[in-house]
Amino acid sequence: MSFIVVMGVSGCGKTTVGSELARRLGFHFCDADDFHSEENKQKMANGVPLTDDDRLPWLQTLSQLPFRHEKLVLACSALKQQYRRILAEHSPSHLFVFLDVPGEELKRRLCTRQGHYFKVNMLDSQLATLERPHGNDLKYVIVDCSHKGVGDVVNAIVEALEFQKQ
């Protein structure tokens, strides 16, 4: 795999897990949050959920990142299957890693997070939008992150990558 998308709703640990996974694999790391327009950041900060139209230019920009980085881990919500298809459009060697975290744990994490434009009141909107990877979705693995530290989650992803090679 040369393009790994660590995905899930806000608070699931995408940035923390993704940056550690990239370090471990020797890949470049990007956080999709850094590519949102100021307008989108302001909407989210004001509690306004993003629409598909809001997300499309952002997703198109993100889909170009594998051209700039040969080996890339991207932390990105990728909430819907159609979003994941856009992200994988130019990268045949991809894997989506869904970080599965119970709702109460997500709320706890978001309540303690500081300095981020995404607030806990937006979580319900993301959970309603989320289409869990399943069936014939693109290449994916689901990692249960309940009561696991970052190291354990990254180990599970590395094991899944090894299995994918077989």
Describe the fold and architecture.
- One of its GO terms (molecular function) is gluconokinase activity.
- It is an enzyme of class 2 (transferase).
- The protein is an alpha/beta fold and 166 residues long.
- It has a 5-stranded parallel β-sheet, covered by helices on one side.
- The two termini are 12 Å apart.
What secondary-structure arrangement, pairings included, does this model have?
Elements: E1 3-7, H1 14-25, E2 28-31, H2 38-45, H3 52-63, H4 65-68, E3 72-75, H5 81-88, E4 94-100, H6 103-112, H7 123-129, E5 140-144, H8 150-165
Parallel strand pairs: 1-3, 1-4, 2-3, 4-5
Largest sheet: 5 strands, parallel
| Structural class by secondary-structure content | alpha/beta
Low-confidence stretches: none
- The gyration radius over C-alpha positions equals 15 Å
Query: What is the string of SSEs from the N terminus onward?
Result: EHEHHHEHEHHEH
Sheet-strand content, in percent, reads 15-25%
Instruction: Let me know the average pLDDT.
Output: 88
Shape: globular
**Count of alpha/pi helices:** 8
What is the oligomer described by this structure?
A: single chain
The total count of strands amounts to: 5
Could you give the order of strands across the largest sheet? Answer: 2-3-1-4-5
Helix content: 40-55%
Our measurement of the CA-to-CA distance between the termini, rounded to an integer number of angstroms, reads 12 Å
